[in-house]
Amino acid sequence: MSPEYPFDEAATARAAVDDSGVLVGWNAGAERLLGWPGGEVLGRPAARLLAGAGPPPPDGIRWHGTVTLRHRDGREIPRWLVAHHREPQADRPGRWLLFSPLDDGTPPPGTDDPLATAALVQSPCAVAVYDDRLRLRRVNAAMADVIGLPEERVRGLRLAEIGGRPQSEELERRMLQVLTTGRPADVQTYLRTGGEERAHAWLARMAPVTDDRGRVRGVCLAAHDITENVLARERLQIVNEASVRIGTTLDVTRTAQELADVFVPALADIVSVDLLDPQEHGEPPSPLTAPVRLRRSAHRSVSPGTPEAVVEPGAQEPYPEGSPQADSLITGRTILAAPATAGMEAWLAGDAARARRVREFGIHSTMSVPIQARGLTLGVAVLRRFRRQDPFTPDDVLLAEEVTARAAVCIDNARRYSRERDTALALQRSLLPRTLPRTAAVDAASRYLPAARAGVGGDWFDVIPLSGMRVALVVGDVVGQGIQASATMGRLRTAVRTLADIDLAPDELLTHLDDLVVRLSAEAGGDGSPGEVGATCLYAVYDPVSRCCALARAGHPPPMVMEPGGTPRQITMPAGPPLGVGGLPFESTELQLPEGSVLAFYTDGLTESRERDTETGRRLLRESMAACAERAPGAGQGADGASLDETCDRVLRALLPVGGVADDVALLLARTRGLPASQVETWHIPPDPALVAPIRKQVVDQLDAWGLQEAAFTAELVVSELVTNAIRYGAHPIRLRLIHDEVTLICEVSDTSHTAPHLRRAKSWDEGGRGLLLVAQLTQRWGSRHTSEGKTIWAEIDLLAQL
Hints:
Blueprint: E1 12-18, E2 23-26, H1 28-34, H2 38-41, E3 62-70, E4 76-86, E5 95-101, H3 114-118, E6 126-131, E7 136-139, H4 141-147, H5 151-154, H6 159-163, H7 166-181, E8 185-191, E9 200-210, E10 216-225, H8 227-245, H9 252-263, E11 270-275, E12 292-301, E13 316-319, H10 324-331, E14 335-337, H11 342-349, H12 352-361, E15 365-373, E16 376-385, H13 394-431, E17 442-449, E18 457-465, E19 471-481, H14 483-501, H15 506-525, E20 535-543, E21 548-554, E22 560-562, E23 569-570, E24 589-592, E25 598-602, H16 604-607, H17 614-629, H18 644-655, E26 665-672, E27 680-685, H19 692-706, H20 712-729, E28 734-740, E29 744-751, H21 771-778, E30 781-786, E31 791-798
Antiparallel strand pairs: 1-2, 1-5, 3-4, 4-5, 6-7, 6-10, 8-9, 9-10, 11-12, 11-16, 12-13, 14-15, 15-16, 17-26, 18-19, 19-20, 20-21, 21-24, 22-23, 22-25, 25-26, 27-28, 28-29, 29-31, 30-31
Helix pairs in contact: 8-9, 8-13, 9-13, 13-14, 14-15, 17-18, 19-20, 20-21
């Protein structure tokens, strides 16, 4: 007797035969039946106990039938046996367990037997009654069908001997609890019964059987096939999981992978998701024809590493007519196929690698489900089975179509979002400078990172060449994110460039820009109420001749400056109100910068985050700039430290998280340069027209000294016209200045009059009015700017064009 079964087991003849046919088990019931003690038969061929021909080879894991056995005294005994096969385990080989019930003297059931009356013979529910030794006494017709054996053959056997599976042994242990405690129990299990290829889900309800005195005389077991209910719950669970797990992001590849993850292993052993490449401009695809080219977006398998897959993620594959993918996409419906079908055979015959995988892994059932949304076909999900032996059913098709339909909406949304985001990013990139201009005043580098969620925003930066070799540096941030903020940013950037062209001082430029934002805000309100347009901006002008930098800001973070050999520091300057407040003044700050100083302009997305305060962000910015300055100079670098591009990258790595930023980030670094005094010459002009000729002579001599003889003729004409106009229409004192670098010669004439010249077309009989027209035709560009003393007329000559 075993602890699990405390009763005498001799009521059943029991033997065990390993896969090689040797007897490895023999109980007292077997000795009682055939008279052979265990010591004489164990370890010997089981065929020695057969009289005549043995049974046919078993087909499956259970066998039953009548065989003729040989008694120890020579008699031949016909006996009905049931045999169950146990798979090999680590500590023992495979074996067959054989059982035969013995007559233990128990009378057959009668009408007055409480155990017999408990058997509801005509009940549609499968019922079995076991006695107080847990041996079968009675089954009804429904239970006999479930077992697959007649009652008279299995009467007297235990449940574990009839079922022969580990689940049967677990049920028997629960029956023993019912027998000893007198309390009923319910057990849900999976069993393969009655020759079924597929295990069914069963609810076993066990209740004690008592006599008229209330004594427990046995156990009644009623079995209910709940397979359909379980499958319905599983399908509902898969649908619920799909609604939660699919579409967590607006990324097409991630969504496709989530679809594959939901299907495996709940519905299939391997799943691949192949998508059509999106059409240009989002146009609907033309009618599909074979072969169909699909791109593998995701796959998943019950096997680690998905060794069954032929196509790698991201690769494109053509699918010809007859393949489940092409047939499903062209017809727009789900296709069930097996390798033996004609279409599949023809397809696999032309694809040796795929056919080899099908044979190697035993793929026997394929379901191809089209991915469709808004009337458009996006791709196909292909489900395959090789570990699960049952083929796909119509219910599986309905479930796969339901889950795929949900995923199709998410994939379509992700594609539409990606298309709109790409359009928005293209718009924003078109509004930002693609490359920074090369100037004699500064070397510059920049970085822009859009917000991770919005994708586009209102941060911008710019480097604007000004007259006199000067340069304007600007960085701004429009309130909000998205297309609206990006469009507003484009308008403000254009306005800054326009205002910069007329050479306004930084505080004056911000005043005009503030008026523009106020008007934009009023337009955004529409109904007369104030709108929500707002922005911050920092504007700086650097002069490489004087090394002076003038700055003003409108609510924007102040810049950092690092002078050669020094440490980074924040420039102290008035904050100024944000743009759009209106009516409040802006103030400029001027500082002298040695050549090689590095200015850092940035938006608040660089230094502000939820994980740290603003001051910590600024400290990290200073530290990263200082770390770059400590590097030894090399090719393309400044007087000290790393190149500006390397500094930009180091700053972003130090301050920004890996997973993306919550707000836009704009960073502009500029290293100042200076023009040596030898490249600048100034003359003070007396207000006498007769002295224009000597002035022209001095200009030509200076150009000879600079080695710019090729530009002497053009420069002489330009200087003559500008000086003459200043003497005739300007106010004393008058000053002439020449500036040059490798590619440009600048002629500037300044006076104290605030009257600006303008270009006009002189009539044929006019004696004058052609001077500025001549200057405009001879120079690369020309213009005027107002100064605190008056105005300056300037003209730029392209030295390369004079060669």
